[in-house]
Amino acid sequence: MARKTVRRPRPPKPPLMQRLRGDFLTGLVVVLPVFLTIYVVWGLVAIVDARVIPLIPRQYNPENVFGRNIFGLGLVVFVVFTTMIGAATKGYIGGRIIRAGERLVDRTPIVRRIYNALKQIAETVFSQSNVSFQQACLVEYPRRGCWRVAFVAGPARGEVAARVAPVELLSVFVPNTPNLTAGFLAFVPRNEALMLDMSIEDAAKLVVSGGMVAPGEPRPEPPARTPARA
User: How many C-beta neighbours within 10 Å does residue 97 have?
Assistant: First the structure.
């Protein structure tokens, strides 16, 4: 005798307002990053245009040539000018001029501090070297049993490594949430750093999201359905 399959009743649909609220939040997650990205880029281009275009000679100014301003022209001029300065600096004459200017700045008390600080920041942010974090790890901070995500920059070198020898230290950067660029440097014994298998990008997502995005977390499997008996 064939068994009869009993159909389970479908779960009731959520109320209309609840569905609309869910749809709105889902759309907001998609639209908001795109909108903010366009807004920030547009604002930066406008700021550069406002500072650079007035420096263009009057006979070449787009308002006098075309009768209207060209959005983004200031950014193009800035990029071309900066590239030319960078190429000239690599040459013998350009390098001597830059070094002479830096020596002059070093003799100015207040300007020297400002220039050196800004130069150090620019070299750190725009450096073309291949130095990067090697791996993500966990370190115990601010107390035992409390773990934080950190990025391994490499083994400690120089005086720091010599002072604590033979203990092998790792140089790690401990970022803050949600701003990855803010944090602090720490030197941790290698045997006290718990290495993670996740990539640097996944670890960064974990920190930025405040733990809400957990890369590599397995999805819960739906419960197995048991055949209904007649």
Answer: 13
State both tokens at 118.
């800004």
For 90-127, where are the alpha helices, taking DSSP H only?
92-106, 109-125
Say whether pLDDT at 180 is over 70. yes
Helix/strand/coil for 21 = helix
pTM: 0.48
Dihedral over alpha carbons 97, 101, 106, 107 (to 10 degrees)? 110
How far apart are alpha carbons 32 and 20 in whole angstroms?
A: 17
Strands, sheet with 169-175, edge to edge from the N-terminal-most edge strand: 183-189, 169-175, 147-155, 135-140, 194-195
Q: Determine contact, residues 133/200, Cβ cutoff 8 Å.
A: yes
Residue ranges with strand state E in the chain: 135-140, 147-155, 169-175, 183-189, 194-195
DSSP string, 159-190: HHHHHTTTS-EEEEEEE-SS-TT-EEEEEEEG
* Cα 66 to Cα 60, 62, 63, distances in angstroms: 10, 5, 6
Asked if the bond preceding 142 is cis, omega within 30° of 0, the reply is yes
pLDDT tens digits along 55-97: 888 888 888 777 788 888 888 988 898 888 888 888 878 888 8
